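Worked problem 6 (solution included).
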Amino acid sequence: MDKILILDFGSQYTQLIARKIRELNVFSEIVSFNIKAHEIAKIAPSGLILSGGPSSVELKKFPLPDEGIFKLGISVLGICYGMQVMTKSLGGRVLNSKRREYGKVRIYSGDGKSKIFKSIKKDFICWMSHGDEVSRLPCGFKKTAHTDNCSIAAMESKEGLYAIQFHPEVVHTQYGKKIIGNFLDICNCKREWKLSSFIKQSTCDIRSKVGEARVVLGLSGGVDSSVAAMLLSEAIGDKLHPVFVNNGLLRAGEADKINQVFKNDFNINLHYVDATRQFLSALKGIVDPEKKRKIIGNEFIKVFDSTAKKIGGIKYLAQGTLYPDVVESLSAFGGPSAKIKSHHNVGGLPAKMKLKLIEPFRFLFKDEVRKIGKLLKLPDEIVYRHPFPGPGLGVRIIGEITKKRLKILRAADTIIIEEIKAQGLYSKVWQVFGVLLPVKSVGVMGDGRSYENTLAIRAVKSVDGMTADWAKLPYNTIGLISNRIINEVKGINRVVYDVSSKPPATIEWE
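Solution. The predicted structure is:
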């Protein structure tokens, strides 16, 4: 099966490149920018893509690939920083731009003879995001595009090296997918990869890796862990031991529902552990969100280790970790990307963990996992369920987590979901939930004064969780939810609506 390797230089868009390639039915894999040329040769990809990144080749220290990658005899495409680092590596020159380009820019693709611009208009709108530009081409290269402010916006050589200053992977670039498709054609890629192929390959890989050992899986009942459970069940059968941990941070009725679905409907050998007291005790007095996430991650591992000992023969911990979790938690591939926050199943895991990890969806996105769930015949109730964070309500209570505050948020959360479903809006938003704020305000209830908590409603639309826009819910729906919460939930006298997009905000508040 043909494969494209993407060298990650820390761009938040790197995963979008991988997605576009997969959508074109070619497998893509993201690796560290500093992978050695001989390692790439062993993998034998059909082509390489150098991603964008936040650095500059004008700095004293900057991410630089092994120069041997340009001598492997395979086609290479540099995008944004990838173009600049290709230029620098091959003897060209890069300077700070006189005028930076950010956002939509019209680009002109010259004589139209470049294979990378095949069957594309000679001028179109692209998405730029750069403060440096190529001022002198490397030897053997020719210019293939420019903008009004950037004299060299694309270049190529007869040796199969291509570079573009803009980002074809984002939706704002016209013909972006076509440009990536043109590069796949240059690499002679066969369009054979599908998610069904991923399922087949993953089950083989998991079966081979696990052997006769047993696997414990952290099952939350959400989309990711549920689909992971079904995939591992296909691969290793009864050697899979899903563990559902009630950490005391679940929504109302969640524990009973998950036990019912997985034990009775799916007939999976589910191990239920009520660790409410353990988690709440460890979180007592903690208000810092990073500390909360790490504590929750550590406590989960303690429970899994303990449960694994009781089951016996457990060597692996399986999780439904997704790529957006990895990107926000750490630089997954060694690239210089920024850490946003630790997810309990990535950056929140302890350094010394007794169980080895199996994360089949580590490089996939939520929509891809949902498609896999459908292929594995999971019911829509689970496949299209809104994302729920591993730390649960712990990251939806800003400040200290207490039993009283959990009770308040659970009651409010129940009302939000009830009304969103009743209004037929559940399937139209990516996620909707309440956040209990550490803010009290004066209110009037009856003839008396109240001084109670504030709840924020967060509703977003998204495709993969990497970016999101706040959902424009109908005013009457928001008003109805607010009215019910204030009247029915003791401890809340004010409701506000979050109108922040991601970026700059994240979807969850912590």
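Discussion: The two ends are 40 Å apart (CA to CA).
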